[in-house]
Each structure stands twice: as structure tokens, then as C-alpha cells.
Amino acid sequence: MSLALALGRRGQGRTWPNPAVGCVIVRDGRIVGRGWTQPGGRPHAEPQALAQAGAQARGATAYVTLEPCAHHGQTPPCSQALIDAGVARVVAAVTDSDPRVSGQGFDMLRAAGIEVTTGVMASEAAADLQGFFQKIEQGRPFLTLKLASTLDGRIATATGESQWITGPESRRCVHAMRATHDAVMVGAGTARADDPSLTVRDIGVSHQPVRVVVSRRLDVPLMGKLARTANDVPVWLLHGHDADANLVRTWQDLGAMLLPCAQQGGHLGPTAVLQALGSQGLTRVFCEGGGALAASLLAADVVDELVTFTAGIAIGAEGTPSVGALGVAALARAPRFDLVEQRRLGQDIMCIWRKPERMRA
């Protein structure tokens, strides 16, 4: 199952709206087939592994990270494929919460006389598939918030200089993280100040995540990198219903997709933003700020994972904070996360934080 999980992770960022699943087929103690969900979500992992195993799948055990599907969509059910291949046993990590499947895949297998074991490495699989589950159950994707800052929590000097606070090792790691998410998201302030590309570069990855900008008024540079490349790599703009209609049309003509969202206190509501992204099929979103957007997401309690990169440099109070005003008057009401990983990257420290209650059992 550990290998199946590793295979499934190869598809992260490339399979939405489908889950990134891994499958390993073992016969007589030997691996005879391996597969993972392919780009765009099809083919699924099980047919990939079965095709590799061929006739050796008969009487074998299939290890799969998610319950095999039971419904007819653009492809036949994976449960039926396992039955037709003559697999004797299926070991699955977690049940699929999609109502079209949810236990029905296991029922099909058992009805065909196949032994089914569930719950193997369930917590690890649930963490990997959390975005898919959240899209199905809550209508929103898994959200990772990345903060790269100085020792004193600043992301730019008083004059706006920000490149580069963290070192090349941290930046390379960020590109790898972008590649495992369906979309990279920033606020309009970051789009204006940094003119970012938001692409994956220099790590040998060919596919690109969707680039998302949250901008109530669509005040994003029309001559910036995002605008100039909107026809090459997808750009989605989330805006208020009161955005200038001419700007909406201009961005559409440039090749961007426009998604209107409900406002909350003069800003786009974080929940509405994520619901809009979920409605388009996204399961994993990587947010890179800036401070105002980070604060709104933290205040709305929609950050599932927090990744911090801290550099050994101090700027002082006059610098730009990595997180904007939260209005926290009591520590008991401050957003809290548990440290799950810490690693040195060059001269920087990377930490990954999570809320345990968000882990799917």
C-alpha cells in the first residue's frame, strides 16, 4: 500500500476533478502491475495496473488507495475491471465519499466473490485525497497557504523590495509544491507588486497549474505576465459582481476565465472564492499570498495546510507583514496549527503545519 500511495502522489496536480489514485497488483509475492491516475483523470489507476499485469492479474491481490469506482462514466467501472481480470483480493485504504460509489464498489467486488480488506494505511490515504473528499463533501478544494518571510515575519522592505528573502533551495521547493497542486492562487496586491508568472519552472515538469488571482475590482495589470500569457497557461480571475464590465470583457478576450464571487465586508468572501474554485473541479489549491488574502483565509478558517519558509534575516516593523490584520484580541481565538514537518533548506527553515481535526480518518 505504501507503494500505491507513492504512485498516487505522482498524479497530484494533474488529475482534477478526479482523485489521484495509485494501484499495485501483486501475485505470489511479486509485483506484476502498477498504475496511477493519468493526467485529466483518465485512465484510472486500476486499468493501468491491470493492463501491465495482463494474465497475471488472475488470482492476484490488488492494492488500491481509494475504493474502486462502481459507476459508468466516461470509462467503465474499475470494480468491474478488477472482476473481469479475475483478481482474487482487493486491499483498499479508504472508502470513496462520492455518492455514486460510496461502498458500492466494495459491494460489487464482494458479490463477485472477491475478498475485500479496507482501512490499510487509511490516514495516509485520507491526507493525500483530502482535496477530493472536500470537493465532494464541502464543495471546496484543499487549501495550502505558503508564507515565505524573514525571522520577524516580513515579506518585503518598507520600499517594497522582496526578491529574494529566501534562498534558491526554498524557491525550488515552492516550484515542486506548485506542481502537486491544481492551481496557484494570489491576491491582486501580489499580482500588482510582483508581476508574478506563477508557473512551475526549473524542475523538469512540463504541466502547469491553473493560475488564480483574487481581485474584487479586477485591478490586475493588463500588460503584466499573467495577461500576456493567459492564452498559454490558464488564468482564472475571481472578482466581485460589481467589477467593471469592460475589464471583464478585456480579460476574457485575453483568454482568462472570469468567476464572479459574493462579497463579504467589502472583500470577496474566502468561502465563496473556494466554492467557486471547487465548482470548476479543483481539488488542491496552493495560495502564495499576499498578506491581506492570507489574513482573510486564516480568519475564515479555511486553511488546511500552512507551509512556512523562514530566512535568517530581519527587516523590522516598517517592513510588510506576511499576514495582514486578523483582529485577534485574545490568544484563544488565534488560528493555531500543529507542526507536522520541519526541514532545513539551504539557510532557510521550512515548516509544515496542519490542523489535526482536518485529517480524514
UniProtKB/TrEMBL annotation:
The lineage of its organism: Bacteria, Pseudomonadati, Pseudomonadota, Alphaproteobacteria, Rhodobacterales. NADP(+) binds at residues 148, 164, 190, 194, 290-296. Keywords: Hydrolase, Metal-binding, Multifunctional enzyme, NADP, Oxidoreductase, Riboflavin biosynthesis, Zinc. It catalyses: 5-amino-6-(5-phospho-D-ribitylamino)uracil + NADP(+) = 5-amino-6-(5-phospho-D-ribosylamino)uracil + NADPH + H(+); 2,5-diamino-6-hydroxy-4-(5-phosphoribosylamino)-pyrimidine + H2O + H(+) = 5-amino-6-(5-phospho-D-ribosylamino)uracil + NH4(+). Gene3D superfamilies: Cytidine Deaminase, domain 2 (3.40.140.10), Dihydrofolate Reductase, subunit A (3.40.430.10). In the N-terminal section; belongs to the cytidine and deoxycytidylate deaminase family. The keyword Mitochondrion does not apply. Substrate binds at residues 162, 178, 198, 201, 288. Its cofactor is Zn(2+). It comes from the Bacteria. InterPro entries: APOBEC/CMP_deaminase_Zn-bd, CMP_dCMP_dom, Cytidine_deaminase-like, DHFR-like_dom_sf, Eubact_RibD, RibD_C, RibDG_C, Riboflavin_Biosynth_HTPR. It holds the Pfam family RibD_C. Converts 2,5-diamino-6-(ribosylamino)-4(3h)-pyrimidinone 5'-phosphate into 5-amino-6-(ribosylamino)-2,4(1h,3h)-pyrimidinedione 5'-phosphate. Pathway: Cofactor biosynthesis; riboflavin biosynthesis; 5-amino-6-(D-ribitylamino)uracil from GTP: step 2/4; Cofactor biosynthesis; riboflavin biosynthesis; 5-amino-6-(D-ribitylamino)uracil from GTP: step 3/4. SUPFAM superfamilies: Cytidine deaminase-like, Dihydrofolate reductase-like. Binds 1 zinc ion. This is Riboflavin biosynthesis protein RibD.
